[in-house]
Amino acid sequence: MFKIIYENGARVGVLKAHGISVETPVFLPVATKGVIKTLLPEEAWREGARIIIVNALHLYMHSFETVTKYGLHDFMKWKGIIFTDSGGFQSIKKFPARVSDEGIIFKKDGSEEIFTPEKSIEVQKALGSDFIFMLDDCPSYPYGRKRVIKSVERTIKWAKLSQGERNFAILQGGIYEDLRLKCIEEIKKLNFFGYAIGGLSIGEPKEKMHHMVAITTKNLPKEKPRHLMGVGSPEDIIEAVKNGVDIFDSAFPTRNARHGTIYTSRGKINLKKAKGSVIDEECDCYTCRNFSLDYLSYLYREKEMLAMRLATIHNIRYMNRLMERIREEIRNDGNLDKLKTEFGI
Ligand SMILES: [Zn+2]
Fold first, then answer.
1. Out of 48, 51, 166, 310, which could bridge 287 as a Cys pair, Cβ 3.0 to 4.6 Å?
2. How far apart are CA 103 and CA 313, in angstroms?
3. CA distance 138 to 218
4. Can you give the pTM of this predicted structure?
5. Mean pLDDT score across all residues of the chain
6. What is the pLDDT of residue 94?
7. What residues have a C-beta under 5 A from ligand 1, the ion?
8. What string of DSSP letters covers 228-240?
9. What spacing in Å lies between the alpha carbon of 20 and ligand 1's midpoint?
10. Given CA atoms 38, 316, 254, 84 in this order, what sign does their dihedral have?
11. Are 170 and 136 in contact (CB under 8 A)?
12. What is the pLDDT of residues 293-336, one digit of tens each?
């Protein structure tokens, strides 16, 4: 269930599933393989994560039978909500796979298999996902208009085969306004729980991305949730929230943490060179409550695994604190831009 509880262009909502309620705008850490890299589930939970997003195609290719035996929640011991992404886009970049009018073609156990839109939904249901994402055709950037026309045609056709009461449609159209609008008009006629804005944050200019988000949200039904896929950076999240986006997912804060970049109220810190006693005076995460910046950066330079873990804990908390403040500012009709100073953006 999803309900808007406050709106002033930006929105605060509540998403209910799996026995819990989560306020939006919300940020989802990425758990591609069924794990937020380096973290225990309870660590992510303690730092405020309530929803994660897992790549369905990855699990299908690697340990599908085992996962379905347990169900994804029990397999990874996650008590929050699970979104599964169909995973087509990431897989085409990573594995020898290609896209056709019928679906994604790839090799599993040496033989060629086709991941159709129907198969994608079936796999996500079998995994025990709370919210399912349709298979879409997301072209890599840079692309030409012709490729995006094809992507929109396929995505509309596949959406018709992917409807369901806890399913998210994915909207394509690249950076072409008319193609985005066409995709929205066709997919709006179908039965979906929510809408995901796809095909952005893949290398196109930032202002194009924000413009595409703005025209999309303007043309979507108000009562349904909107998820901006693969976004992202704190500044992009703030811009998209202003345009009425409710849900975000990105590997950005966790990947950066593992590569030694942490986000703090005084800006980004590179652990390779960092010095000082306090990590982030505004942060209440486990790492900031217990360790000095000197120790964290020392561990990072020594290539100790604990550095990745402590940095990931901090960045997840940073994102969740940002989202908490965003919701508070919306409710008070405040100024979202002032959060940029508060969060060192
Ligand atoms: Zn912290």
1. 310
2. 37
3. 22
4. 0.97
5. 96
6. 66
7. 283, 285, 287-288, 314
8. ETT---HHHHHHH
9. 25
10. positive
11. yes
12. 999 999 999 999 999 999 999 999 999 999 999 999 999 999 99
72 CA → ligand 1 middle, Å: 29
Sign of CA dihedral 6, 10, 12, 14: positive
Helix (H, G, I), strand (E, B) or coil at 301: helix
Q: What is the pLDDT of residues 194-253, one digit of tens each?
A: 999 999 999 999 999 999 999 999 999 999 999 999 999 999 999 999 999 999 999 999
- pLDDT per residue over 89-109, tens digit each? 666 666 678 899 999 988 877
The catalytic site residues sit at 85, 249
Q: What is the pLDDT of residue 178?
A: 98
Phi and psi torsions of 254, nearest 5°: -75, -40
* pLDDT of the residue at 294: 98
- Three-point CA angle 19, 20, 21, nearest 5°: 135
Buried b (16+ CB within 10 A) or exposed e, 195-230: bbbbbbbbebeeeebeebbbebbeebeeebbbbbbb
Find where tokens 């980004």 sit. Answer: 268
Q: How many A from CA of 258 to the centre of ligand 1?
A: 15
Type of residue numbered 194? G
What distance in angstroms lies between residue 341's CA and the mean position of ligand 1's atoms? 17
DSSP string, 197-221: E-S-SSSS-HHHHHHHHHHHHHTS-
Spatial distance between the Cα atoms of 260 and 276, rounded to a whole number of angstroms: 15
> Between the CA of residue 302 and those of 31, 270, 307, what are the distances in Å?
26, 14, 9
Calculate how far, in angstroms, residue 317's C-alpha sits from the geometric centre of ligand 1.
Answer: 6
pLDDT at 31: 97
Least confident of 29-43, 48-62, 76-90, 237-251: 76-90
Confidence class of residue 87 from pLDDT cuts 50, 70 and 90?
A: confident
CA of 251 to the centre of ligand 1 (A): 18
How far is the centre of ligand 1, averaged over its atoms, from the C-alpha of 281 (Å)? 8
Query: Distance between CA 234 and CA 45 in Å, rounded?
Result: 20
